[in-house]
Amino acid sequence: MNLLPFGKLAAHRPRTFVMQNLDLGDWPQIAPLFDQLEARAAQARSALELERWLLDWSELNAALDEEASRRYIAMTCHTDNVDAEQAYLHFVEHVEPQLKPRQFALEQIYVAVRAGLANSAEQELTLKRRYEVFDRDVKNHVALFRPENVALETEDAKLCQQYQKLIGAQTVNFRGEEKTLVQMGRYLEEPDRALRQEAWELVAQRRLQDMDKCEEIFDGLVTLRTQMAKNAGFENYRDFMFRKMGRFDYAPENCLQFHDAIEKEIVPAVRAIHNDRRRQLKLEKLRPWDLAVDPLNRPPLKPFAEVGEMVSRTQKIFDRLDGGLAAGFRQMDDLKLLDLDNRKGKAPGGYQSTLSESRLPFIFMNAVGLQRDVETILHEAGHAFHALATRDEDLYAYRSAPIEFCEVASMSMELLGNEFIEEFYPPNQNEVGSRCRATPDAPQRVPTNDASRARRVHLEGVVGVFPWIAMVDAFQHWIYTHPNHTRGGRRQAWLELMHRFGGDVDWDGYETAHANLWHRQLHIFLHPFYYIEYGIAQLGALQVWANSRRDKAQALDDYKKSLALGGSRPLPELFSAAGCRFEFSEKTIQPLAKMLREELEKL
Hints:
Blueprint: H1 27-43, H2 47-77, H3 82-116, H4 121-144, H5 148-168, E1 171-174, E2 177-180, H6 181-184, H7 193-209, H8 211-231, H9 237-244, H10 252-265, H11 267-280, H12 307-321, H13 323-334, E3 338-341, E4 351-355, E5 360-367, H14 371-389, H15 403-417, H16 429-432, H17 449-481, H18 487-501, H19 511-515, H20 522-526, H21 532-550, H22 552-564, H23 571-577, H24 586-602
């Protein structure tokens, strides 16, 4: 039974090394290919032979990666399907543990052979430029690999799957109907405050039913991760992860500077937004269920009713933005590389996953008809465009960039696509006559009320997400530099960060929900330390947008060229190619915060 929304996809390049009928879920069939690669690498005597070897290694990696992606996609699309769960766990338990030491062996051999090749000075200079990033990353992997961590990583992945299954199964009965927690989000935009409170409390109570299970899973993850760091010779898991994630261009201290800058430049703006909201809603205090409703108590924005409508309107945005990007999105829709609707048994969140052998992107999300769904599809489409931009890069490692820049691709697309948000909120007849005709080169910026609201909602979200990013990142710094903490200590650390970075919201009577709010942030469980990237990237995306406001064509051209570089250059060069500075202290944040405040005032 095929549980994937898409069918068989052709490889972007025909296989020349991996057999067509190889069962990529059966390790005994895979192992001989690693034997061949080990033997050949040791015999390489020229740069040409080594590069040919690298392409065969890349082909094998892409085939295995796509197999893993297919199983992960099926599992997240159907968390309640036993076959999908077992297929995913089989790969995690029986293929990946075998795969990791063999990959490490190839990396060791590559480092030794690469260092020993006798090349002309001119050829060595070319190779150094081409493989600078690859060589650096492989050497880092070799330095960090510990065989004893393989089993721990397997247990980590299994605990993460338990978390996804737990969260994916969460539903509530709301006024006689079963609803997922994602579906309940729409009620937080309703003008009826009593309805909002009822919906919020029901979701909060449902989350708290799984509080102890979440804590138990996370306790296990902290124990495993702390041991991995010790095995690799690090004092703590934070420092280990900075190295493992290849953060060569910034350090924990830079993240702490980011936290401080957000507290100084952004948190006051968030509190001002909250204060305006409280006054407009005519409330003495803002409560957690008052943060998503329109502050003028207008009905919720309804950008679309059905997922198909969301897809068609998103397509129109890309048609107006850029022909090449539009063609890529249309191809994904044609190939059924979109699973966008929310349903019971589907994992939470949204992601873009690249099917590495076909070199095509797949988008997963949980759309329920909210404005944030529009933002999500634009965001994930940015990731997809990144994957499509690197299709002709044959070195597997260079078809993906560091996460800090991957998120520039996606967040920039939210801002660039937002210029054409009228595709979701068309003008009514009374407005048509008073508007100038919009063109792709000069989009109309005298929007309908709903378009203006949508832009403001998005930009307020950009402002509001910075403190949340700083909070989640600072929380992880605290967790893993205090590995022996108790659950009570963890809750207290979270509450102190909420006080530092939170807005003016009254949680009186809901202290337990407040102290466990971090349970909903899947990155803390599934992707440790993968969150500051969103903050760094948002600064890059805002710079792309600022450039676009000055010269739209040049900014879009820089954006597309930078995506095509994939991961072939260091982070500062990728940012520079996109017209941005790779720097995230107060010096960078202050002018961008000013731009956001001015734009919000216009709206």
